[in-house]
């Protein structure tokens, strides 16, 4: 069964621009296909750099979590301004207007819409994470979906300097660590607040950086979903497999280190 968020996105696809509209050559300064990736852009872009960034995220998802790459089609639609992005999506998808980028999946085609800003690469890395996750998995909890997208939107060496880290540190030291049970109750992107994105990022950081056991816990949870299983809430799944799991997490949130872990 699809997750609520996935269902929402799928329903919205019914009124999205068709692929044929995307392929109006007059609109796009760049229209180029590279393997399974097709890029439509209203402004000049360094396609080699974009391709390398997307590949970097895909490689990390594969190496750390076993999320396999796919040759299913991805369409990247880049607008030169926020107003052009709004004009293009306003009637068909008003929900998208509050964001700098959106991702949709239409059968086997994934589409990313984004407008040009100084966060362009961050937005592309964020959305390609969603694409890879949804290509590989029939569903996944929203907090894992957004937590991984937030985590992989920046390069690994930037996590330590993130403003999110400071916020998690001081809140945790005051006795208010990110609560997994709260995140697990969120079932639609529209109800997620800024704190929820940050706390999802913090939980993913804990799982990927505490030790190999926590990383493998997330990896096996996703593998079970990929294999057709329904492993239930992650908090219960984790508590069954790692003694003192929530205590380990709370301890991590008071340090928020990003050391590399090795098998
Ligand atoms: Zn997202």
Write up this protein.
- With 263 residues, this protein is of the alpha/beta class.
- It has 2 domains: 4-136, Glutaredoxin, CATH 3.40.30; 142-253, no CATH class.
- 50% of the residues lie in helices and 11% in strands.
- It contains 12 helices and 5 strands.
- The chain has helices spanning 4-12, 19-22, 47-65, 82-89, 120-136, 142-152, 163-173, 180-184, 194-209, 212-226, 234-241, 245-253; strands at residues 30-34, 37-41, 74-79, 101-106, 109-115.
- Strands 1-2-3-5-4 form a 5-stranded mixed beta sheet.
- Strand 4 and strand 5 (109-115) form a beta hairpin.
- Helix 3 (47-65) crosses helix 5, helix 5 crosses helix 6 and helix 9 (194-209) crosses helix 10.
- The radius of gyration is 19 Å and the shape is globular.
- The relative contact order is 0.11.
- Residues 1-16 have low confidence and may be disordered.
- The structure holds zinc ion (ZN).
- Zinc ion binds at residues 126, 130, 146, 149.
